[in-house]
């Protein structure tokens, strides 16, 4: 799903920056028109410092919108969005993602649900107003 999205945004002149864990295979992003920042954060040790460093790098690149590719990445994305004072979007592929999204502390601007069943589950979880959940 990310490949066509990245290509479409690039065709519209949008500059993309991907952020991935330091253990993600480089080939994952090789075919997409984007810079990639590899990021390591120990969740149990001073995450605010790591988030601040990453936010500074993204701020220097002029990032204006963040997209968490799944609900598990949503918490880090929400922290980054707060640090950058920008909006964020979360993709959701699984039933039960509403619990993770509801614990973020900052509601995403939009949730992109992988199907009608996922959308209905997100709406029932009350993690975000129903008009901000759409199926892709």
Descriptors:
136 residues; 4-stranded parallel β-sheet; two-stranded parallel sheet
Structural features, described:
- This protein is α/β, with parallel strands linked by helices and 136 residues long.
- Helices cover 38% and strands 21% of the residues.
- The chain has five helices and six strands; from the N terminus they run αββαβαβαβαβ.
- The protein has helices at 2-11, 47-60, 74-84, 97-102, 116-125; strands spanning 16-21, 34-39, 65-68, 87-92, 110-113, 133-135.
- Strands 3-4-5-6 form a four-stranded parallel sheet, covered by helices on one side.
- Strand 3, helix 3 (74-84) and strand 4 form a beta-alpha-beta unit.
- It is globular.
- The mean pLDDT is 83.
Structural class estimated from helices and strands: alpha/beta
The average pLDDT score comes to: 83
Strand order of the largest sheet: 3-4-5-6
Parts with pLDDT < 50 across at least 5 consecutive residues: none
What portion of residues belong to β-strands?
15-25%
Total beta strand runs? 6
Helix content: 25-40%
What is the 3D shape?
Answer: globular
Main sheet characteristics = 4 strands, parallel
C-alpha Rg (nearest Å)? 15 Å
How far apart lie the N and C ends?
10 Å
Strand and helix order: HEEHEHEHEHE
User: How large is the count of helical segments?
Assistant: 5
In short:
The protein has 136 residues and is α/β, with parallel strands linked by helices.
Q: How is this fold's topology laid out?
A:
Elements: H1 2-11, E1 16-21, E2 34-39, H2 47-60, E3 65-68, H3 74-84, E4 87-92, H4 97-102, E5 110-113, H5 116-125, E6 133-135
Parallel strand pairs: 1-2, 3-4, 4-5, 5-6
Helix pairs in contact: 2-3
